[in-house]
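re: ur question from earlier - yeah i can do the single chain one, its not a big deal. heres the input i used so u can compare w yours
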Amino acid sequence: LLTLFPGRVGGSETNVRGLLGAFGAGHGPDEVVVLANRHVLEPYHELAAGPVALHHVRSYRPGDAPVTRLGAMTWAGLAPGLAARDVPAGLDVVHYPVTVPIPRFRGPTVLTLFDVQHLEMPEFFSRAERAYRRIAYDRAARRATVVVTSSAHARDRVADLVGVDSDRIEVVPFGIDHGRFGPGPVAGDDDVLAGLDLPGRFVVYPANLWPHKNHERLVAALARTRDAELGLVLTGQAYGRLEALMETAGRHGVADRVRHLGFVPAAVQPALYRRARALVFPSLYEGFGSPPLEAMSCGCPVASSARASLAEVCGDAALTFDPEDVDAIAVAIDRVSGDEPLRDRLRRAGLQRAPGYTWEASARRHVEVYERAAGSG
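and the output i got, formated as tokens:
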């Protein structure tokens, strides 16, 4: 986890934390050494349990901002021996769960590549970002012993666009923390949500303000819903884009109906799902897409885009819509928040689907992947 900045990367960190929790509970390898930068040590201290131990790699200096982080990764590529001199000897397999292959390792490697959005939707990336990903993602995947993706869609696109032999790609879906995400009523939800200034009735969308998350069309759709009192609650990192989004909401006349809570504590998201009328997920692209499953686990009806992996993840437990059609999004919001028979059907279907995704199962599959890599190295 030398390149990880906790709290900034969304689904990839969800995957890391879920796996380490399951490993610590005895569902993973006999010994797990987490190669940690200084930013990781405190947030991940609680996950150092059972066979999981944190090892601070002081020789890798991760930086504190995007520019210094990129500088640190560049230095690690130019002087890999110096950057990795604090890495312990005797490792059997090194797993890069946040993709970037630092520290360099001469033995068997497993690399998680969540998606190839930079190849499928290059318009969302600068020339520099695309060049970086071609090295840090694509070339790294071609060099890895085994590549892990979280969906069959991602596996097929990695094979087609990156040129990795599909036989070297393993699909391991994310799990859901069913201890956190469960149906209500749950004692304490009111306390958790107190002070957030939530609308009386709202739909929720947890997503960082990245372009492919499609917030602008969602806000435009909110203005076309029949229920003029329905609010929209957003969570996730803003990345400097919130002011522009709220200007868009203002132009559509719904700024007073939109709340952006930012990055929220762990207890808030499940409480929001249980309070919300529905989850609306208009993303244009996902390598996996955990929020629909999290909402389903909480008994929250889901309306979702069916792009990329989302059809695979949601199955028939979500109302689907075209995420590029603002009117279609508005109709979906109206139906999923106001059509009670539909809501009941979606709630039941979601509660049946979500239990099939666990971190214990994901951890056991990773053990198989590590064993395969070790046998191939």
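Residues 103 and 115 are 21 Å apart (CA to CA). not sure if urs matches, ping me
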